[in-house]
């Protein structure tokens, strides 16, 4: 009999300070059920974030198997999930899983930094429901985002958790494939030994790139130890804006049955991170300084073009994707030949579509927005282009993927600044988010992106590291953690409580 493997997915990164994510938002962003999950994963232009793509590929290549696809949804990053919807989704999984028994394995594509409006550990809840149905002997493997906030329950209820290794995230499919290869080992009877360490470190999100700094070093060191008894090393940076007790960095080491090997490596990596915590610091420019730097780039064509990341309003961290502080400053300072990508503003996009190509009108940004950091702004606008916003990513995080922005519009404001407006809230991942409208990124003197870091993988062949600046603007995902009104974190935690002392706990094994 070919092994029957259930596939299911639920992904959300919850910013506790953002509006609640309801069923409508999940259905708008990504929702697949049953066979269409596998059809999509095996297609050339998939919508899947990548986990199922890699998992199915690895399973297909390594022998016969029977996928049992149940349901998959993701809302990217948003607020807490509305509890009633999450409970219904879990019941749906429960019913379909029971009906699908007997199963030989389960693969779950998860994020790991979700919070519910009631349940503060929805992934732990989901994993426990799965485990209760399939029993202790059926392997349960899940992939997690690098920003996962891991609970002990999540580790207990699964055989193996595999986190992304790259930030910007470009290895979703590779980690899915790793899950597929590991599933074959588990099906062959190898048992896992797991070690888990939670660290009281809350690094700002901009300090978690995987190719540099203490975080990159910990990931790289972990990867040099994979092989032999070590099956997987996952070092997760955490997502601080969850604002709940499971925030904080995590190390999970999973060994092929060798508990002592798992424990020793988890301890070593956790100790390294703690020793290096002082290096997790953001370097941000003020809006005034950023405006001056962009002005210089516009005035002198010999100077390299600049990319400014509006990191605090990153929709990928639950930001609203529409703050206007940088735009306002650029308009006032007379900056030209710069594009802003992408501002989420469905009413303005609808108006641009209604008025049509070439129309001139007074654009009112954020006319229906309620978050105080997303200020209204009025400017004379010309409609340069409109589209349905269905794109295929060019490279990096959404490279090759089919992606929906909802209806979009390119408006030129005050005759000199270009802004791409979209209808489905997303961060700026990819040049296609501008170029599908005819705006040429290489011709610009500068670009301002609403993104914390994933843009780096989509623009890296145009903007070098030296051309990228991070700006300290307003927004729900500010890297300046002392400005946030935290209520739910486990305290004390570094760097909010700089005198925090810590040592690796005696017990790190999880059974
Ligand atoms: Zn992430």
Q: What's the layout of helices and strands?
A:
Layout: E1 4-14, H1 23-29, E2 31-33, H2 35-41, H3 51-61, E3 66-78, H4 83-100, E4 105-110, H5 122-134, E5 140-144, H6 152-156, E6 160-163, H7 172-187, E7 193-198, H8 213-224, E8 230-236, E9 250-255, H9 259-275, H10 287-299, E10 306-309, H11 325-333, E11 338-344, H12 346-355, E12 360-365, E13 377-387, E14 390-392, E15 402-404, E16 408-413, E17 417-422, H13 432-435, E18 446-449, H14 455-459, E19 468-470, E20 509-510
Parallel strand pairs: 1-3, 1-4, 4-5, 5-6, 10-18, 10-19, 11-17, 11-18
Antiparallel strand pairs: 2-3, 7-9, 7-20, 8-9, 12-13, 13-16, 14-15, 16-17
Helix pairs in contact: 2-3, 3-7, 4-5, 8-9, 10-11
The protein binds zinc ion.
Descriptive labels:
alpha/beta; six-stranded mixed sheet; Rossmann fold; 511 residues; 29% helix; binds zinc ion; eight-stranded mixed sheet
Largest sheet: 8 strands, mixed
Q: Specify Rg, calculated over alpha carbons.
A: 23 Å
- The rough form would be described as globular
Number of domains: 3
Helix content: 25-40%
N-C termini distance: 30 Å
Give the mean pLDDT. 97
Strand proportion: 15-25%
Provide the structure class.
Answer: alpha/beta
Number of helices: 14
Give start-end ranges of low-pLDDT stretches. none
């Amino acid at each position: 009999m070919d092994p029957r493997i259930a596939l299911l997915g639920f992904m959300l990164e919850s910013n506790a300070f953002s509006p609640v994510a309801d069923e409508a938002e999940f259905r708008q962003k990504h929702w697949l059920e049953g066979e269409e999950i596998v059809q999509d994963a095996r297609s050339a232009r998939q919508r899947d974030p990548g986990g199922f793509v890699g998992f199915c590929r690895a399973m297909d290549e390594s022998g016969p198997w029977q996928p049992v696809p149940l349901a998959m949804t993701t809302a990217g990053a948003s607020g807490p999930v509305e509890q009633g919807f999450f409970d219904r989704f879990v019941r749906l999984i429960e019913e379909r899983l029971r009906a699908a028994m007997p199963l030989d394995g389960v693969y779950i594509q998860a994020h790991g930094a979700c919070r519910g409006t009631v349940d503060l550990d929805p992934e732990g809840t989901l994993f426990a429901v799965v485990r209760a149905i399939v029993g202790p002997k059926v392997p349960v493997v899940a992939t997690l985002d690098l920003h996962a906030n891991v609970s002990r329950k999540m580790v207990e209820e699964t055989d193996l958790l595999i986190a992304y290794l790259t930030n910007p995230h470009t290895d979703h499919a590779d980690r899915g494939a790793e899950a597929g290869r590991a599933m074959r080992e588990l099906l062959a009877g190898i048992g896992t030994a797991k070690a888990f360490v939670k660290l009281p470190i809350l690094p700002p999100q901009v300090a978690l790139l995987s190719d540099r700094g203490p975080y990159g070093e910990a990931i790289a060191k972990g990867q040099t130890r994979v092989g032999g008894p070590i099956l997987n090393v996952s070092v997760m940076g955490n997502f601080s804006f969850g604002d709940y007790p499971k925030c904080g960095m995590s190390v999970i080491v999973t060994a092929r049955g060798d508990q002592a090997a798992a424990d020793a490596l988890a301890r070593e990596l956790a100790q390294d991170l703690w020793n290096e915590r002082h290096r997790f610091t953001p370097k941000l420019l003020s809006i005034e300084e950023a405006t001056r730097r962009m002005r210089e780039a516009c005035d002198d064509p010999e100077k390299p073009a600049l990319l400014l990341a509006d990191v605090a309003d990153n929709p990928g961290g639950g930001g609203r994707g529409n703050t206007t502080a940088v735009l306002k400053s650029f308009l006032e300072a007379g900056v030209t030949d710069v594009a802003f990508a992408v501002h989420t503003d469905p009413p303005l996009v609808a108006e641009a579509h209604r008025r049509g190509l070439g129309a001139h009108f007074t654009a009112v940004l954020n006319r229906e927005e309620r978050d105080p950091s997303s200020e209204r702004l009025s400017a004379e606008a010309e409609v340069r282009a409109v589209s349905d916003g269905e794109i295929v990513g060019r490279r990096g995080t959404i490279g090759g993927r089919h992606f929906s922005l909802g209806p979009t519009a390119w408006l030129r404001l005050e005759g000199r600044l270009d802004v791409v407006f979209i209808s489905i809230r997303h961060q700026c991942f990819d040049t296609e988010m501008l170029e599908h409208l005819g705006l040429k990124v290489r011709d610009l003197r500068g670009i301002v992106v609403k993104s914390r870091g994933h843009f780096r993988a989509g623009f890296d062949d145009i903007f070098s590291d030296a051309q990228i600046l991070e700006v300290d603007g307003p927004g729900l995902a500010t890297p300046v953690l002392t400005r946030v009104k935290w209520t739910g974190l486990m305290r004390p935690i570094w760097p909010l409580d700089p005198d925090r002392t810590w040592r690796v706990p005696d017990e790190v094994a999880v059974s």
